[in-house]
Design a protein that fits this description.
Largest sheet: 4 strands, antiparallel
Strand content: 25-35%
Radius of gyration: 14 Å
Order of helices and strands: EEEEHHEHE
Helix content: 10-25%
Structural class: alpha+beta
Distance between the termini: 37 Å
Number of strands: 6
Length: about 120
């Protein structure tokens, strides 16, 4: 497997800029049925170890469906358009991000900071 880009050792969080090309409906594990309108979204996640591997996993087309974001990313109308990393902790970075929460709880089943969700629809 290609190693891909490396990231600074202090970077523990990432944001995926996601474009949904048309209105879609997915079933996201225990969260159930989720409707998304076309547009741009940002998902904030973290990896305390091996950030590059986590990001490669998200970019991969073949993966076991484990997290809410996996169910969204496998849809053919969805693409990751940009990846950013940061040393800012996941929840703090997510809370700094403007945008609306399209699906309460999406990507935040283990969130202890009351973010509401770790996926936001980007403002126009």
């Amino acid at each position: 497997m290609k190693s891909g880009p490396s990231y600074p050792a202090e970077h523990i969080s990432y944001q995926l800029r996601i474009r949904i090309h048309q209105d879609i409906r997915i079933v996201a594990g225990a969260l159930g049925c989720c409707n998304f309108t076309a547009g741009d979204y940002v998902y904030t996640g973290s990896a305390r170890r091996n950030l590059a591997a986590r990001i490669r996993r998200h970019l991969s087309d073949s993966k076991k469906l484990r997290w809410h974001i996996d169910y969204l990313l496998i849809h053919p109308a969805v693409e990751i358009t940009h990846v950013k990393t940061s040393a800012i902790p996941e929840c703090r970075w997510n809370q700094q991000l403007s945008g609306e929460i399209p699906i309460p709880g999406f990507g935040a089943s283990d969130c202890r900071r009351h973010c509401g969700a770790h996926l936001k629809k980007a403002p126009r």
